[in-house]
From TrEMBL:
Gene3D superfamilies: P-loop containing nucleotide triphosphate hydrolases. Residues 34-181 form the ORC1/DEAH AAA+ ATPase domain. This is ORC1/DEAH AAA+ ATPase domain-containing protein. GO terms for molecular function: ATP hydrolysis activity. InterPro entries: AAA_22, P-loop_NTPase. Coiled coil: none annotated.
Length: 521
């Protein structure tokens, strides 16, 4: 069977191209050797489970430890602590039967001769009878609700001091979020636990020595992954293509694999074995990006669903508008959005990849796109001699926004970013696949800019909310910086007046042969 780029489930080295998983978590061996309990975390489909199985396999081959990976989401729907811990014990037993030699199997949970009262008791019995120290990887801990996660953590903490002879030598907790960032209310935590906790720490799992975030691929690793396909098929991803894919994805593993899969299919000449391929070029990469966004991939759809959650929406809207968030909820909201890999956690805070940025803007503006009047979005009325006429385009939007903006925005779930999304919807519907869009958004910068490539020409639009008398001058300063940075001679500033006064105007300013056109909305 030929290998392929994997976009579903853990990678297997016999059927998938993959980067050595162990190279992505180099610290784990020393932490395990020193009997540490620690955490590994990272967004979904970034390779966590693949790494866990690779670590388990390596440790078992070396024969120093008995290592096992367990998915605890089998207990997520349990009604109470006892049922959940029993189900986790059953998961441990059945995984051991699949991956461990018989002498290393734990007691059978349902055997009356090995009855146990708690998960701590079960793990203790296994550790006492096993001939090698135990190393356990508990995957998907986020799936356990607070009423199950807290007792699970408490039992691990209680047994911690008895390691390695009477409790597992090392335990690794794996999920979306850093276990040390979980916040529990005082109602969840006993007085004795609160006394033990360090100031500012709101988790009772204070035996976690370190938290490791699984890193995305760097440019070199992207090249190594793609070159595996080249070695197998002879099809080359040249350095320009490798770099462009890295720029689009920032090395996010699922995105890299998904785009590579689409490119392989787009470039296939025939269905022979082995098939022939066209050379991959940048136009194919653009087409692959469009296809990825149109496929309604579960990976992206699951992220879009998060927009219904207030703390997720708080971060995304602030990024799109360049505004400031509600600081009362900012830290937890940022950590939450970051745990899904959507945003950066360094300044300026923005989308983690251009693909995610494009995908979220399309998704958030999609309802507007569906219902915009066809007469408004007929692209040819804005094209003269094959070139886009931005003035006419923006004038048409300005008139529509003046007439219908208030009503349309009142129905938008994203009140802070609604006016921008309506503009984006208009441009996406009007220009469609004839244009290429590149947005520049970041929290706190005070504006959002967009480059539109149309028939070889670049058009720069800068959007800003006009909240006070300083907005116009601030916007012009920001527009000048954009003109200088991108070496353009013409750009547009769209000022959306939140007070709905002095809304409709057009003004042109010429400085050093640079044209700055202001549209009041």
């Amino acid at each position: 069977m030929r290998k392929r780029f994997n976009t579903a489930g853990p990678c297997r080295d016999d059927i998938h191209y993959l980067i050595n998983p162990l190279s992505r978590l180099p610290e784990t061996q020393s932490l395990i050797d020193s009997q540490q309990y620690f955490a590994i975390y990272g967004p979904r489909q970034s390779g966590k489970t693949t790494c866990l199985y690779a670590l388990m396999g390596m440790l078992n081959r070396e024969a120093t430890y008995t290592a096992l990976t367990i998915d605890v989401q089998v207990a997520a729907d349990c009604p109470d602590e006892a049922a959940a811990m029993h189900r986790i014990a059953n998961a441990i037993y059945h995984q051991a039967k699949l991956y461990l030699h018989r002498p290393e199997h734990p007691p059978e949970p349902d055997d009356p001769a090995h009855s146990f009262t708690t998960l701590q008791d079960y793990l203790s019995r296994w550790a006492k009878t096993n001939r090698k120290p135990l190393v356990l990887f508990f995957d998907e801990i986020d799936s356990l609700g607070t009423h199950l996660l807290l007792p699970f953590l408490r039992q691990l903490r209680t047994g911690f001091e008895a390691r390695p002879k009477k409790f597992p030598h090392s335990i690794v907790l794996v999920g979306l979020r850093d276990i040390q960032e979980y916040q529990f209310t005082e109602a969840h935590i006993s007085p004795s636990e609160q006394e033990e906790m360090l100031p500012g720490v709101e988790t009772p799992f204070n035996i976690c020595s370190k938290s490791l975030r699984i890193k995305w691929f760097n440019l070199n690793q992207v090249g190594l992954l793609l070159e595996q396909h080249s070695e197998e098929t002879g099809q080359v991803f040249n350095e320009d293509i490798q770099y462009h894919l890295y720029q689009l994805t920032n090395g996010q593993p699922w995105l890299i694999n998904a785009l590579a899969n689409i490119l392989v299919e787009l470039s296939r000449v025939n269905s022979a074995d082995p098939p022939l391929y066209h050379e991959i070029d940048l136009n194919m990469v653009k087409q692959a990006k469009i296809e990825l966004l149109q496929h309604n991939a579960i990976h992206l759809e699951n992220l879009f669903k998060k927009l219904k959650e207030p703390k997720f929406k708080l971060i995304i809207e602030a990024i799109l508008t360049g505004g400031i968030p509600d600081f009362n909820h900012f830290r937890d909201a940022l950590n939450y959005a970051y745990s899904f890999g959507i945003v950066t956690r360094h300044t300026p805070i923005t989308f983690s990849t251009p693909i995610y940025q494009y995908a979220f803007i399309i998704s958030m503006s999609e309802p507007f796109q569906w219902v915009l009047p066809p007469a408004l979005t007929e692209s040819m009325q804005f094209v003269r001699d094959g070139n886009l006429d931005p003035d006419q385009l923006l004038t048409a939007f300005q008139q529509f926004y003046y007439r219908h903006g208030t009503q349309w925005l009142s129905q938008c779930p994203f009140q802070q970013a609604g006016c921008y999304l309506l503009l984006f919807a208009f441009l996406l519907r009007t220009l469609g696949e004839q244009a290429e869009f590149n947005w520049h958004t970041a929290m706190g910068v005070g504006y959002c800019s967009m480059h539109v490539e149309f028939v070889g020409q670049t058009h720069l639009f800068c959007m800003k909310l006009s909240r006070d008398q300083y907005a116009r001058e601030e916007g012009l300063i920001q527009l000048r910086e954009q003109l200088k940075q991108h070496q353009l001679n013409r750009a547009y500033l769209l000022l959306f007046d939140v007070s709905h006064q002095n809304r409709v105007y057009r003004e042109e300013i010429i400085e050093d042969n640079k044209h700055m056109i202001l549209f009041g909305m």
